[in-house]
Structures are given as C-alpha cells and as structure tokens.
Write a structure and sequence with these properties.
single chain, alpha+beta, four-stranded mixed sheet, 21 helices, about 50% helix, globular
Length: about 450
C-alpha cells in the first residue's frame, strides 16, 4: 500500500495484531513499560509533584478516584492521573527516548494506555500491542515531520500515540481511532526548548498536558468534534516544521517497529549530553585524571547537543541540560544522581571548571543525525598534554544496548525509597506484564509491594 498521508499510515498500523509484533519487540516493550512506570514512581517524589499530589490525590479509592498513583498510597481521577503520571515520568530525565522521533514517545504512551487498560481490565498482552502501535504512530509522525528545533517535543506529537493506544484498548473500530488520532494530532501544545535549558518545570507539565489531551481526544471524538488529514498535514508540514518527508512514513515500516530502535537512559540528564559523557568517562578512567590536573576541556558534538552549553545553571533541571556542569561534576568524582541539590550543586570547584568547558558544534557530526549522535571530548592538562576521545553514539541505544543487569540496577535506584527486597519484587512483577490476565490486578500487585515495604 502506498503511504502518502498520515491517514494512510494509520490505516496500515491499526491492522497490526499481537501476532504481527516480533517477540523481541514485545520483550523490549515490557522493559520499556517497566522503565517508564518506575520513572513515574521516582518522579512522584519531586517537590512539585508532592505538592500536586496533595491537591489531586485521595487516600481512599472510589468510583471517581480509581487510578492508583504507584507508590504514593493515593488515587486520582483519570484526568488528574494522566497529568500526574505524564509529568512525573519526565521530571528526573530518566525516561526512554527514540533518536528517530527526536523525543520521548513512551512518556506519552504510558498514562493513556495504563489508565484505559485499568478501566477495561485488559490483559497485559493487549496493553503491549496498544503501546507498540501507538508508539509507532507517534514516532513516525515525529520522524517524518522533524519538528522545529526551537520547540520541545513533550506534549506535541506524542499525544496522537497515546490516543491511538487508548482507542485500541477500548476496542474501537479503525474509523473511530482514525478520527480520535486526527483530533489528537491537531492538538499539540506550543512548547519552548528554552523551558528546558533554563530549568522551568513547565517543561515537565508539557507531557502531563499531552497525556491528558490523549485521553480527552476520545471525549471530543464521541461528542462529534472532528479534524482532517489536511489539517494535520498543514499543522505538521508548515507550522510545526518545514515540511513532512512522506517517505519516512513508510521507510522500513515495521522492519522492525521503531520501538525496537529506542534508547534507555542511565544518566539522569538530557539525552543530548550522553555522547559527551560517554566520551569523557574513558579518559578519566584510563588516564586517572582528576580536576586538579585539567586546564580546560572542549566538547565537539552535533548541533542539537551543542546548545547545552550553559556553564552555570541556576537550578537542578537546567543543570540536567548543561554539558559543562555535568562533565565538571563527573571530573570531580560526583555521581550524577547526587549533584543536582545541596552542597554538590553549589560546589564552587565544579562551577569553576564548568566555565572552562567549551561546547561547540561539529557540522560533520550534525550531518550524521538521526542515525548517529556523536561527540568528541578533548582535555588539555595543566602540563600541556592533550588527550581526546570520540564516540559516534551514546550508550543505551538499540545498537549499544545495556545488559538487563544494568537496567535492573537503574530500576533499583529509582525505587530506592523502598528496601531491596521490595524493589526487587516490584521489578519482577512489572516484567510479568505479557502474562497478566488483567492489567488492574498486575498494577495492584506492584503497588501492594510498596505498602509492604
């Protein structure tokens, strides 16, 4: 079938059944759902989410407040749960992403899929199917339209994937899902990349609002509101980007699904910083360097990453988008999990070295996008030596996957508020999703562990 429009893409993907999803993609989706769910649980602990929970959550489940907020002991309405989960998932910069989509599809899939699966008492396998197809729809739209770089991807193209996942779990027909998807694709919010690099937490709300809109698309569709492929093409081909490359709607479609080309994150920072981190770490390890030995440091990388050049971030979120701060913290021997608050965040020696770290674009590296995201780190020592390291892609991608052991260690870090036995049991339960007969019972088993711990 020739795919020349967004609706053609939907027509092909909505026919995909669970049997059409490769076994390794099902396995990867299972790990991604666990990763995203635990990122949400970790995110609920951030100050603004705790304050939000006090306003939106209740301690006793009822017919209206029926969605459990993992690990908090609280429940919320569908709408508030979508906002809370979506916002929490991205609040610590540990959510998965996709270099072809140029953003974080799963952060937009989880809340609409989970909330709908709970209401439908859907089997885990059906949730996985909906998750994979929704992910493909959203990622293909993002890949083909290549949204303007000044915008942040949260709360934009991901909305359509969440709406598709919710529709599949409701067992809606192709016509209805297409109508809801067109509405969702017509409702991206106006986002700013500056919100991220300046550390404004409205950037995290973008995903919460997007998750809410993905669910609301079904309310709108059932009321008779409508959009069209023409509107979507105009919005994503002219307003949000400089044009849609329609060939990317079908290039290597389902060979494999784009979900199979995602990346996982171990570093709690913007993905654009990870290549530079991966280039720095072997230099520090191999040459046994410490901060006192370093005169200056130069990072050459692709254009999107070169924007992360602020050496003196004002707050924790901005620091997660600062290559100079992140590299300086690592040079000083700090864990990236510990350096965003307290004395370490304000460490004068970290700040001083960060100001001697230069970040510039290498056009040849930019030309490698989206297949490769490269970086070269060059260190000048105080004795005049120059040492350099180059990576052509950050670790954790589909071509440099983390072993399961490292992902389990990441999960344990995100679940550290509970004891080791409790967090381990939560992980094991989460990975049983494909065999779950009822997603609501599956989530309750995970949530029950938090009460025991």
């Amino acid at each position: 079938m020739s795919i020349t429009r967004f609706t053609d893409l939907l027509d092909v993907l909505l026919d995909k059944q669970l049997a059409d999803i490769p076994a390794d993609t099902v396995q990867r989706a299972t790990w991604m759902i666990a990763d995203t769910l635990f990122a949400a649980s970790f995110g609920f602990q951030s100050p603004e989410l705790k304050a939000y929970l006090q306003k939106a959550g209740i301690a006793t489940k009822d017919e209206v407040n029926a969605i459990p907020l993992l690990g908090t002991g609280l429940y919320a309405t569908r709408e508030q749960a979508a906002m809370l989960y979506g916002t929490a998932i991205v609040s610590n910069e540990l959510d998965e992403g996709n270099q072809f989509a140029k953003g974080h599809p799963a952060a937009h899939m989880l809340a609409p899929a989970l909330i709908t699966a709970l209401a439908q008492k859907a089997p885990g396998a059906e949730m996985i199917r909906a998750f994979v197809i929704g992910y493909e729809v959203a990622s293909r739209l993002a890949y083909a339209s290549n949204m303007n770089d000044d915008m942040h991807p949260h709360g934009t193209w991901g909305i359509v994937g969440g709406a598709v996942a919710a529709g599949l779990l409701q067992k809606k027909g192709k016509k209805e899902i297409t109508e809801a998807a067109l509405l969702a694709a017509s409702l991206p919010i106006a986002t700013s990349w500056e919100a991220a690099v300046t550390g404004m937490t409205v950037r995290n709300l973008y995903t919460g609002v997007g998750s809410f809109l993905a669910l609301q698309a079904w309310t709108f569709q059932s009321a008779g509101f409508a959009s069209s492929g023409h509107v979507v093409d105009h919005l994503w081909g002219s307003i949000m980007s400089k044009g849609i490359n329609y060939e990317l709607f079908h290039q290597d479609l389902w060979a494999p699904p784009l979900l199979s080309k995602n990346y996982f994150k171990l570093y709690p920072s913007c993905r654009f910083s990870h290549s530079a981190i991966d280039a720095l770490l072997p230099l520090l390890n191999e040459h046994k360097l410490d901060a006192a030995q370093i005169e200056s440091l130069h990072v050459e990388t692709y254009g999107l990453a070169a924007r992360l050049d602020n050496p003196d971030p004002d707050n924790a979120l901005a620091a997660k988008f600062s290559i100079p701060f992140l590299l300086s913290a690592l040079v000083h021997g700090h864990s990236l999990y510990d350096c965003f608050s307290g004395e370490l965040f304000h460490d004068a020696s970290v700040r001083e070295l960060a100001k001697r770290i230069k970040v510039t674009e290498d056009e040849a590296m930019t030309a490698l996008l989206p297949a490769k995201r490269a970086a070269r780190v060059t260190i000048m020592t105080r004795v005049g030596a120059e040492i350099s390291s180059y990576v052509d892609a950050a670790s954790g991608g589909f071509d440099q996957p983390f072993p399961a052991r490292e992902l389990r260690e990441k999960f344990a870090s995100m679940l550290a508020q509970w004891d080791e036995r409790t967090s381990s049991q939560m992980v094991e339960e989460a990975l049983l999703l494909p065999k779950a007969g009822d997603v609501s019972e599956w989530l309750e088993r995970i949530n029950l562990q938090t009460a025991k711990g």
